[in-house]
Amino acid sequence: MTPHSPPCGLCQNIRDLQNSHLLPKASYRHLLDPTRSNPNSVSITRKIMIATSQQVSAPFLCHQCEELFSQKGEDYVLTQCAQHDGQFRLREQLQTATPLCTTPQFTAYDAVALLGDTIDSYLYFAASIFWRAAARRWKIGSEPLRQLSLGKIYQEQFRLYLLDKAPFPSNGRIYLHVASETSPQLLELSFPSSTRVDGIYRHKFYILGLIFVLFLGWETSQRHDSGALNGTQPCILLRPWREDSLFQAGVMMAMASTPVGSLRRRP
């Protein structure tokens, strides 16, 4: 470390930086497929599709902040996701609970009754991913990912929340959806992306069977409060991942990208 070393992206102190990941490093272990000639995870960008051991990472956070992210969210949430052995603890918990309601599109469950205080772990985990996606520009190899924009004010509010220096941003609501497909279909990751829905920004990412949705904007507390993990009547929705707009966008991206390396299409 030198006097000119960049500060930690979260605490902003001058410290040795770790090789930080946009999505938790531990989540990549679930993507290895020993049945392929190249068992590494498949990454898809707007240009290429490649099986690679490269992960989306860069020197960004100090050791203390990495530990904070692990202890307050990652370590717990990743045990509840879909696993290689077929276990999916959160979904199994839902399937033995009494639903609040059932529709053709989803089944809703009472998040407070099911999660209790661990709701805070899911909120913190999701907030840490959305903040990381906005706080710097990430790359897969030399290919840049599209950077999230939370807005300068909201980005700072999230940073302070993650440091336990402020409450969760009052104009943000996070929803949790659980994929209903069988486990082998769930071992995928989708990097955070954004769109605008009826004048409010919606940010989403998918990780190992869990879909996190963040609505952010000044009307959010009025229009997207009910059902959010940090709103009134917190709910969890059990629904197909294949029907989600994020999955469908990924399919379109895969169709438009060029397979390279071991994924190159054969004539």
Short characterization:
The protein is an alpha+beta fold.
Could you characterize what this model shows?
- With 267 residues, the chain is α+β, with helices and mostly antiparallel strands.
- The chain has a domain at 74-256.
- It has seven helices and 14 strands.
- The protein has helices spanning 63-80, 89-95, 111-115, 119-135, 152-162, 220-223, 245-256; strands spanning 17-21, 42-44, 48-51, 57-62, 101-102, 107-110, 139-140, 143-144, 172-179, 189-197, 200-207, 210-216, 235-239, 258-259.
- The strands form four sheets. It has a seven-stranded mixed β-sheet, sandwiched between helices.
- Strand 11 (200-207) and strand 12 form a beta hairpin.
- The longest helix has 18 residues, at 63-80.
- It is globular and about 55 Å long.
- The relative contact order is 0.17.
- The model has no long low-confidence stretch (mean pLDDT 88).
Strand content: 25-35%
Mean pLDDT, to the nearest integer, reads: 88
The spatial strand order of the largest sheet comes to 5-6-13-9-12-11-10
Characterize the overall form.
globular
Please give the count of helices: 7
Radius of gyration, CA atoms, in whole angstroms: 19 Å
**Alpha-carbon distance between the two ends:** 52 Å
User: How can the largest sheet be summarized?
Assistant: 7 strands, mixed
Low-confidence stretches: none
Class computed from helices, strands and strand pairing: alpha+beta
Percent in helix:
25-40%
Order of helices and strands: EEEEHHEEHHEEHEEEEHEHE
Give the beta-strand count: 14
